[in-house]
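ARCHIVE CARD
CATEGORY: sequence design from structure
SOURCE FIELD: tokenized fold
FIELD CONTENT:
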């Protein structure tokens, strides 16, 4: 494997974002269900909330990857995946911080 390949250098960031995004699918489903039951109690309301949460997380994944991926060099671990997961949900704070 060539160490000059940009994808190889960003392998930890790619894996971290991918795993955090996979976990976020389940978290968005649970959160959409709970919020949907609390406010609307209909399938359409829950599906709409889930879709909005997934859009929020996917946009967060793109923003997070663009801002952080070049500097991520530490190997992937459970704590790193948890940090990526939390960062996906709190990504607007990353935009506010310079």
């Amino acid at each position: 494997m060539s160490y000059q390949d940009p994808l190889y250098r960003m392998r930890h960031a790619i894996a971290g974002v991918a795993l955090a995004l996979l976990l976020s699918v389940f978290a968005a489903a649970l959160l959409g269900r709970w919020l949907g039951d609390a406010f609307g109690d209909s399938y359409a309301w829950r599906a709409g909330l889930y879709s909005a949460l997934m859009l929020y997380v996917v946009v967060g994944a793109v923003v997070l990857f663009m801002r952080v991926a070049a500097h991520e060099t530490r190997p992937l671990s459970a704590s790193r995946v948890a940090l990526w997961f939390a960062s996906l949900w709190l990504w607007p704070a990353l935009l506010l911080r310079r």
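CARD ANNOTATION: The helical segments are 6-9, 11-39, 43-68, 78-89, 91-96. The chain has a mean pLDDT of 87.
SHELF: design records, drawer C
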